[in-house]
Amino acid sequence: MLKVRLQQSHPIALDVELHCERGEILALVGPSGAGKSTVLRCIAGLHKAKHGQIRCAEQLWFDDKSKLDFTPQQRRIGMVFQHYALFPHLTVHDNIRLALTEQKDSKRKIDDLLEQVHLTGLEQRYPNQLSGGQQQRVAIARALAREPEVLLLDEPFSAVDKVTRRKLYLELNTLRRSLEMPIILVTHDLDEAAMLADSLCVIHNGKTLQQGPPDQVLHRPRNIEIARQVDVRNLLTAELIDVDGQLKLKWHDYVLTVDNTAQLTAGQRVHWTVSPAKVLLHQRVRPSRGEHENPVTGVIQELITLKGITTVLLRIENTNNEIIQMDVPEHVAMRNELTIGDKITASILSDAIHIMPD
Amino acid sequence: MDWQAFEVSIKLALLTSASLLPLGLGLAYLLANSRFVGREVLEAAITLPLVLPPTVLGYFLLVGLDSSSFFGGLFVSLTGHTLAFSFTGLWFASIIYSLPFAVQPMLRSMEAIEPEIREAAWCSGLSKWKTFFKIELPLAWPGIVTAMVLSFSHTLGEFGVVLMIGGNIAGETRTLSIAIYDSVLAFESAQAQSMSLILLAIAFVSITVVFLFNRSRSRVVSF
User: How many CB atoms are located within 10 Å of the residue B88 CB?
Assistant: First the structure.
C-alpha cells in the first residue's frame, strides 16, 4: 500500500493526501496545472516537497521530520512518462535491459516482459522505428523491468491517437490483473479515469479534494467545488423544506422527494445534482411504474446522440428555463420519436438525487 | 616543407584536444545541468577566446605565464622550467584558446537531451554516473566528436597566440602556421604553398568527417 501526504507552498502549492492499495489503480484527476504531475514526481523522488510523508508498503521513502528522502534509485518505482522518455540510442531490448534489477537471466526476463506487453519480435528496433502505441508498451515494459513496488503512469495515453488509445485502454485493463503493486494514473480525462481506475482522487490547485470509487466521486461529489471539477452535468440549487416531518427539495415549483437527507436541516439552501442516466423518460408507447416519482415536465431543447446514447436537454417548465440533462438509449429516443420542441415528462429518481450543502 | 613544424603542430593539436575532452565535458555538464550564480559569467569567460583578437589573448597569456607572475612563478618553482616560449606554455595557451570550440558543441548536445530522459534513467535505477556513461555520453556523442575535431583543427591553425606566447623556436614552438609565415617572408612560395595545402586538406577532411558522422547518427537516433 502506498500512502502519500504532502504539503508545500512553493514553487507550486501542494496539500495532498492520498492512498492506493496493492493491485488498485488510483486515478489522479484534475485540470492542467493542478499539480498532478508534481505529486507523481514527488512519489518518484524527482521532486522534494517541503513537508509530508511518503510510505510504500512498510518502507518510508520520504519524511520531512526525520529528514529522510530516498533518491529515485532507492525507491522501487516504475515510471511511465508522458512522452515515454525512451532512450533513443538504445534498442527496445537494451531499453528494458538497463532497467532490470538483475542482469542474470536477462534474455528470458526481457522476453517475458515483451510478451506481457505484446511486443515480441520488436526487440531490435529503435524507439524512432516504433509507433506511439508501441513506444508506450516499451515504456511500460521498462517500468515493470525494475519489479517496482509502485507503478506511476503520467498521462500515458495523451501522446497517441484515439484509435490506439482505445486499444491501449483494453491492454492496460488486462495487464493490471497480473500486477500486484499500487498503480497511480495521472490523467485529465475523467472518462479515462472512470473506465480504468478503481479509485479517483480529484486534485485542484495542488489540493486533493476527494478520493473514492469513481461512481461516488463523479456522481456524489462532497461539495460544489468537486462537482465543478468532475464536470457534473446537472448542477442545480434548491431549498430544503419539511413536509410532514420529511425533508424534501423545493426546486422552483417542484417539491422533490429525496432518499438521503442525513445531516441536513430544513430551510437550508443546497446544491443538488442527479446523474443524467438517472432521469427516466416517461415513455409514450409503454408507460411504466415509477412515473409518480418526482415527475417533471419540459420541452426538448436539444438532442445529441453519441455512441448509442442520446442526451436530451430538457427545459423544465416553471423553473426560469432551467435545463436538466437526461441520457436515454438511442433506440428509446427513436422509438418514442423524440424531436426538438416536444413536450415530455420524466422522473428524477429520488435515490439518485445527491445534495451538497452550500 | 618543414616537417619539424608539422610534428610540433600535430603534437600540439592532439594534446590540446585530448586535454579538452575531460575539461570540456566537465564544464559542459556543469553548465547544462546546474543553475548557479555566475553561470552566465562562466559561460562568457569560456566563450571569450572566440571573439577576442588572438594577439590580445596572447598578450594576457604571456603576462600571466611570465615567471614574474603568480602562475608562471609557481610553475617555475614546481618544475624548474618557464612557461613562456616553451611547448608546455603553448599547450596551456592552446587549451584556453580552443576551449569554446570544445565546450560549445558539447554543451549544445547535452542541452538537447530532454530532462525526462535523464529522469527516466534515474527512475530505471541507474546511478548518476551510470546515467552519464550509458545515456548522456552516447546521446551527446555527435557534439563530443564535433568538439574534438574542431579543437584539433583550430589548434592546428592557430597563429596569433602561438606567435605571442611561443615565439618561433624550431622543434619547440614553431608550428606549421608560423613556418608558413616564415616561408612567405623569405619568398619561399613553393614551401608556403605545400604547407598551406596540408593545413587546408586536414581542415577540410576533419569538417567533412564531422558532417558525415552527424548525418549517419541522425538516421538512427532522433530526439
Answer: 17
Q: What is the CATH number of domain B3-220?
A: 1.10.3720.10
Residue of A nearest to B128 (CA): A73
Q: Where are the beta strands (DSSP E) in A136-234?
A: 150-154, 183-187, 199-204, 207-212
Taking the domains of chain B in order of start, what are their residue ranges? 3-220
| 8 A C-beta contact, residue B87 and residue B172 | yes
Count interface pairs A-B at CB distance under 8 A.
64
Nearest chain A Cα to B127, which residue? A73
Is A79 close to B222, i.e. CB distance below 8 A?
A: no
Distance from CA of B219 to the nearest CA of A (A): 10
- CA separation for the pair A156, A154 (Å, rounded): 5
ipTM of the complex: 0.84
The HSE-up count of residue B51 (CA atoms within 13 Å, CB side) is 5
- pLDDT in single tens digits along all 358 residues of chain A: 999 999 999 888 999 999 999 999 999 999 888 899 999 999 999 999 999 999 998 899 999 999 999 999 999 999 999 999 999 999 999 999 999 988 888 889 999 999 989 889 999 999 999 999 999 999 999 999 999 999 999 999 988 888 888 888 998 988 888 899 999 999 989 989 999 999 999 999 999 999 999 999 998 999 999 999 998 999 999 999 999 989 999 999 999 999 888 788 888 899 999 999 999 999 876 666 666 789 999 999 999 999 899 999 999 999 999 999 999 999 999 999 999 999 999 999 999 999 998 7
Question: Which residues of B fall below an 8 Å CB-CB distance to A?
Answer: 114, 116-117, 119-127, 134-135, 138-139, 220-223
